[in-house]
Design goal:
By secondary structure, the protein is mostly helical. It has 13 helices and 2 strands; from the N terminus they run αββαααααααααααα.
Length: 305
């Protein structure tokens, strides 16, 4: 009896799962791998965006100019942008993790009308960045903003939310938290539903406090989701652009000009655009994100052990 049909079926069963991955791999290669490799290629050139004949190979000189050469204007741009970006990350990420976790914990006990409140918290996540900033520029306007008018009613002077520090950072973090907590809240809500009830019952029998149950039951049970949310939120915060660009225009005195704004201006701005320098900045920022992401994953894993 021939074994060929059986061999064909075996081969087909092995290749079929790979066929389902193929569309994803193609899209991943086109939209991630190729741009990534091409970006590294661009970063090695003094790249003239308008004249291909003036693209000169400079090796790692672009990285030297942004990282080491303090006489270069790009050095100041990179380090000021990175400092401002890190400031935003440090201020926003804890709030973008803790606030949705707290809301999800409250929704997990399913109070009356919790589905409506969950929808309300998620609704801002559907707004575009332009809509978000328009709403908050009106709310935070120094002269006629709803928030300042409310503060005046209780005897507090008007606050220049978008034109002075540290109020500008507070405003950017506030609008970002309001805009994006819905997505993390949904993930936390689903994660908390998967924590077995018998673990909490055992904690009650042992006399564990609410904090002890949170520390030793809830957080270890959702640590992988927590790692995912923290890392993805950090990456998103590193890539902040629309809020400072539209709300503060990088001010006051470039104190909210984040790295993505410098990268965009250098790559496509006025004068002589320099995509080589901009790409080198983007790669350096990517390396910083990877290092911070790995450190976050390691710390959270240790917290769950």
């Amino acid at each position: 009896m021939s074994t060929k049909p059986s061999a064909v079926r075996t081969l087909r069963s092995k290749l079929l799962p790979s066929a389902f991955f193929l569309p994803h791999l193609i899209i991943f290669g086109i939209f991630f791998v190729f741009p990534f490799l091409y970006g590294i290629y661009i970063s090695l050139f003094d790249w003239n965006l308008f004249n291909p004949d003036l693209r000169n190979f400079v090796g790692l000189d672009n990285f030297r100019r942004i990282l080491i050469d303090s006489d270069s204007i790009y050095y100041r741009y990179f380090w000021n942008g990175l400092r401002n970006t890190l400031t935003f990350v440090v201020l926003s990420v804890p709030a973008l993790v803790i606030v949705p976790f707290a809301i999800a914990s409250l929704m997990n006990v399913e109070p009356r009308g919790y589905k409506i409140f969950r929808a309300i918290f998620y609704l801002p996540n559907l707004f575009s960045i332009a809509t978000l900033v328009l709403i908050w520029r009106w709310v935070l306007n120094t002269n006629v903003g709803a928030l300042n008018l409310t503060l005046e009613q209780v005897g507090i002077t008007r606050v220049p939310w978008l034109s002075e520090q540290p109020f500008a950072w507070a405003a950017l973090v506030l609008m970002t938290v309001w805009w994006t907590i819905g997505g993390n809240m949904i993930i936390f809500t689903a994660s908390l539903k998967e924590v077995p009830d018998n673990l909490y019952e055992a904690g009650d029998i042992d006399g564990a406090s609410m904090w002890q149950k949170m520390r030793y039951i809830t957080l270890p049970s959702i640590r992988y989701q927590l790692i995912y949310i923290t890392i993805m939120t950090t990456i998103a915060s590193f890539n902040v652009f629309g809020q400072p660009q539209l709300a503060t225009e990088g001010g006051p005195d470039e104190s909210t000009t984040v790295l993505m704004m410098y990268i965009r201006n250098i790559a496509f701005g006025g004068g002589r655009p320099n995509p080589g320098i901009a790409t080198a900045m983007a790669i350096a920022m990517g390396i910083v994100i990877i290092i911070i992401g790995l450190a976050q994953a390691k710390i959270i894993r240790r917290m769950g052990d």
